[in-house]
Design brief:
The chain has a 3-stranded antiparallel sheet with strand order 1-2-3. 11% of the residues are buried. The protein has 2 helices and 3 strands. It is of the alpha+beta class.
Length: 103
Amino acid sequence: MAVTWTIANMERDLVQGDNTDIVTILHWRASDEDSDGNTGTSYGTVGVTLVGEPVPYADITEEQAIGWAKDALGEDQVTSIEEGIAAQIAAKANPTTASGVTW
């Protein structure tokens, strides 16, 4: 299993100083699934402050944006998110509670 990270949306400032279309907020999703179809997911938003030469909005790849989101979250938080997803999957694979009716 490997957690898949995606970017659901990017918010941007249309004008920021001398620059245009500067990404400021990333909405990310991380998910995984085991071989039995048990899934886990996490969704969040993170503000980003990009340094250096701005990447033109139209040229930003999802891979770059995922990297920016993970950098903004930090290694410890990324690890925590991925461990939480694994825990969700484990809980679904080995449930400890149930509900229903007997009829």
